[in-house]
Specification:
The protein is built from one helix and four strands, in the order H-E-E-E-E. With 113 residues, the chain is of the alpha+beta class. The protein has one domain. A hairpin with a 5-residue loop joins strand 3 and strand 4. The chain is rod-shaped. 7% of the residues are buried.
């Protein structure tokens, strides 16, 4: 009867398994980083929409609104209020830059004044 020696992994098997793991990490890590950046950008868009909604609500209720800039989570949101000739009303906009330095702008309209 043959008896096998159970000494564990050999060096070649260890190097092969480490190289497979390194190849997997090298191919999946850039996609993972892209997904994480897009998730942060979605959070920034949601925050921009939320801030615009809050400022529009303040304008609608006649409260004093913040028309300068607001910093949330390290991102500066700029507010601007302009008169829209086409709609005969005021336009309140918020703009910001995402993690890929792309500029976004969301606008809402205020009746009256």
């Amino acid at each position: 009867m043959l008896v096998k020696d159970k000494r564990g992994f050999t060096m070649v098997e260890m190097l092969l398994s480490v190289s497979i793991w390194l190849m997997l990490c090298a191919t999946l890590l850039p996609q993972f980083m892209f997904i994480m950046t897009e998730r942060r950008n979605i959070d920034l868009r949601n925050m921009g929409n939320q801030l615009l909604t809050e400022e529009l609500q303040k304008e609608f209720n006649g409260e004093a609104s913040n028309l300068g800039s607001t910093v949330k989570n390290g991102v500066t949101y700029q507010f601007s209020k302009t008169y829209n000739e086409g709609l005969q009303g005021w336009q309140l906009c918020v703009s910001w830059q995402d993690k890929l330095t792309k500029t976004y702008e969301r606008c809402g309209y205020i009746n009256g004044e």
